User: Fold this.
Amino acid sequence: MSTFLGMPATPPRSPYGTGNLRGDRKFPKAAHDELRNEQLRRNLGKATRTIRTKRLGVTGELPDWEQLRDAGSAIKTDTMNRLPELLEQLEQKVTEHGGTVHWARDGAEANEIVARLVRATGSSDVIKVKSMATQEIGLNEHLESIGITPYETDLAELIVQLADDKPSHILVPAIHRNRDEIRQIFLDEIPGVDPDLDNVPAHLAAAARAYLREKFMTTKVAVSGANFGIAETGTLSVVESEGNGRMCLTLPDTLITVMGIEKVLPRYQDLEVFLQLLPRSSTGERMNPYTSMWTGVTPGDGPQDFHLVLLDNGRTAALADTIGREALNCIRCSACLNVCPVYERTGGHAYGSTYPGPIGAVLTPQLAGMDAAEDDPNSSLPYASSLCGACFDACPVKIDIPSMLVELRHQHTEQSGTTAEKLAMKAAAGVMKRPKLFAAAQKAAALGRIAGGRDGTISHLPAPLSGWSDSRDTPAPPKQTFRSWLASAEGAATMSAAAEEGARHTADDHEEDR
Amino acid sequence: MTTTARDTVLGRIRDALALAPVPDTSVPRDYRTGRTLPDEERLALLTHRLVDYKAKVYPCTRERTAEVIADVLRERGARRIGVPAGLDEQWLTAYDGEVRQDSADIPAPSLDALDGVVTASAVSCAETGTIFLDGSADQGRRALSLVPDLHVCVVDLSSVVVGVPEAVARLVPERPTTLISGPSATSDIELERVEGVHGPRTLAVVIRTDA
Assistant:
């Protein structure tokens, strides 16, 4: 064990090139394409508006909402401080109640463990409850590669899977699709679907019910994630709406749950906080329709073979960062996505990771890193924000996402080698230290007016400055610097007028004092 | 000696905590706990919340339990129902359809042939309209209240508490526990709530106001 060596080592990130924690291009480029998709923007605008209104309604109902947020935040911080003992306690309790606990250093190891467990049952199919952790590690892709078919049973995950698409939201992975598109996907992909199926959401849900019913009744193995794992009792919990979770957690013979190590909670009592924070923040309901809680194996009720896979995959690397570790407090409610002006316009695909939106922009680089040597797409994520702070206000566990974004920007510039930006900053610092040189540079800058158009803005700069000008207009430099204006006759006159005015005000104030 | 994944992950966590220590945190629990309300207010709150989430609510007295359950089943056209082994037999004396008592050796998929199920409940939370089932003999295994399309659930007003903390305090953690707030629903299409996906599409709650 590394602790015996005395010198703590920085834990590794999720290995580069594995799982779904990295897109294939940087955020500005991906966002540029997504922004052109008017259908997507309409769908997202409508859905996020709906959910924002609902969330405000039900959080406003609770007079102790802020106290619940404080408690939730402190419980998570306390959990991270005591993570080793809590995980050992969880393992002990799950084992005592007839479950088996496995540990996975990274996604590939977790995938192998799940594949081995599925193979041991002899089943070639698994039914799945929606799970961020298994999406993060690419479990479906791995199972398919060895001939095991995973069936997603959450309606939105099913839509994404049938369309061979990618999730774009933590809570509603198919938020980028509207009812007409979903109808078409069902008509194209569900065998034996009624050809007269219309676009009424209730009818679309009924079509999914009919399709999945048979899978629930016949599949012997289920894979789930977990919202909470209680160390004190070994109880695991899945929070859901449709009942697909209950089906998967109850009907099969074998249940395999993949849980990130940060999802552990110290006490059963802590559920009283999170069962209030999570539903109201995520779907804007007072309570989600169904929550399942189980402890190991219960004879005569539910799966008699239960496995819990505890996943690291970069979580310990995040924990080793004093500021970044706060991202591990996330309970995946997705409130920050729904209030984010950037997310609302670009959608989730532009982030390239399983975790999109504001929390994704901080969690993804924490888990998978921002590798300067590889020109990593993740290095663009901390900049995918206007730092407006809406995410911080909405977060039920008070994660200070804006501060973390700023810290990650800092880390990124520190890590990156000799970029054009760095050279420019270095040159600027040199010039600013020498007054004569600075004055000369300011005069030279006035020449930049030529680059500005008639409206006085610069919309295109040559490389390496094109990165700046591609996403924003720059006002052309003024004719005159402040220093030269101040030294001119006009400047001197303005200054003496202001001084007289100031003197008059001071005299008036003294008058009033008496 | 080979290092196990367990040792590696626990070692990494200890290293991380040494590299980025954070002061110990105490948890402020200033939120509302231990709330109480008079019977009629708990009944009104629970009813409001259940109806808001499209459950059917039937208040009744202990004496009329069997009659009301029979009415609900008839109204929904349920001719064949399942019940957990420990359900009070008196509750079904007015029902003239077929009653099948559940047991662990009945394959769960065969529950699909039932028109409905009648169960008791452990605890309910008025503020959120949530019913807690804990697998006791009068509630049965989890599959029983899940597979059939109609769930008639009997709630005694004495088991209804005000808020979530009061409800969690009454639970036995080791029991398989299911929280039910209205019938199955989804918000997956345009984030609009639609009732009725995989769980029972109808939830009928019989609230016994004197029990």
Q: What stands out?
A: The longest strand of chain A covers residues 254-260.
